[in-house]
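Exercise 7. Given the encoded structure of a 166-residue chain, write a plausible sequence.
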């Protein structure tokens, strides 16, 4: 494995203002952008509109489009545990409850940087057997990394409490 960074957060931001107050919101590395993307998605079940606004900040010059909004709804409605599975302490056995403070680890691999200004980074889900990825792009004029594509929200093992066979 290559470079790995673990981020610790005291709370889930509930607005763009709270997100911008976090030191990682300078978006100076794709690692920060990926960690914040997943952190922001923890707010989805509380407030979809505020979550979309925060994702727009993380996406920079290309805001979330209608297709992406529908994709989030399809992936997360009734399955909010998928996002929780990326945070330390979560597992199918504890219904994907994560520890506080909130911690997430983001890592790269030898194929993470296919060309200059692009990065595909990975995170492990406690409910999946293989890492999930987020693709980021550098905006040279601001030297910030923005989220381009989130491929981390595929189905995972259901929580034990929801599994009739558990």
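Solution.
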């Amino acid at each position: 494995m290559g470079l790995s960074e673990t981020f610790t957060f005291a709370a889930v931001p509930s607005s763009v203002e709270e997100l911008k107050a976090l030191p990682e919101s300078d978006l100076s590395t794709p690692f920060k952008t990926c960690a914040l993307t997943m952190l922001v998605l923890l707010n989805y079940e509380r407030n979809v509109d505020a979550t979309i606004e925060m994702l727009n900040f993380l996406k920079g010059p290309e805001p979330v489009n209608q297709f992406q909004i529908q994709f989030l709804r399809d992936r997360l409605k009734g399955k909010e545990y998928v996002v929780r599975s990326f945070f330390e302490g979560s597992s199918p056995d504890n219904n994907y409850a994560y520890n506080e403070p909130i911690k997430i680890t983001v890592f790269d691999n030898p194929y993470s940087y296919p060309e200059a200004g692009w990065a595909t980074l990975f995170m492990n889900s406690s409910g999946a057997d293989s890492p999930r990825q987020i693709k980021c792009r550098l905006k040279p004029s601001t030297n910030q990394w923005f989220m381009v594509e989130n491929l981390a929200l595929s189905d995972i093992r259901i929580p034990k409490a929801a599994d009739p066979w558990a």
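Remark. The chain has one domain: 4-154. Students should compare their own answers with the one above.
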